[in-house]
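Record 1 of the preview.
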Amino acid sequence: MKEYGVALVTGAGSGIGQETAIKLAEKGARVVVTDISEVGINETVERIKSLGGKALGKKLDVTNADDINAAFTATEQWDKCVDVLVNNAGIVNIQGFLDYTPQNWHQVIGVNLTGSFLCAQRAARNMKKQSYGRIINMSSVSGLRAGVGRTAYGTTKAAIIGLTRQIALEMGPYGVTANAIAPGPIKTPLVEATYSEETIARLLPMIPVGRFGDCSDIAEAVCYLADPKTGYVNGEILTVDGGYYSSGMTQTGTLDLEESKG
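->
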């Protein structure tokens, strides 16, 4: 049975990316840990190695094509070409639509969308040669429903869905699948830095399972899509949000189901 092989994870120095890198290592993948933070890279690599896994750390700015090529080349010299790519690197930049600056717009587009495109393209070239690959992009429920202040973020996450389907269409014939995960409210350093206590209190009633997700919830979903056995899952957008996207009038209060039967 085919193994997970070599997995490259962007934004793996903290949060979802770090947990994903560790989970993939636990599944037997040889993991390339990339991030713009060398401190984060070292922490993730050490955690993987402490569990008996194999990991390579490489600093990577996903907006820089030369950086991307260097990271993939280093991976190929270290082990072999990438079997699993997890495009996780992302930024938010919260700002109202009327005040949103072109600088913020281009920065978010560059990291979230262009970075994912460039990494996927570089990975897919060798995946095509070996007739196998798993590309997993990180979208968001913000790409499915609008959120205040997420002018560029939500736009990029919606575009990631289109990019994923495009890759799935063109690379599917070569044994390469492309899928995306759309996380809902997840406890990450990014969320903790941008969500107020009031925001969290208002969101909780809108999540049917009654809690924010953990990074491990997303990491498990990534491992599912990265599994060699999931080759018929292609072009899928997997929402992992505790039912947030599906929820309706939860904010009106709890419905007494027994009384409603009368």
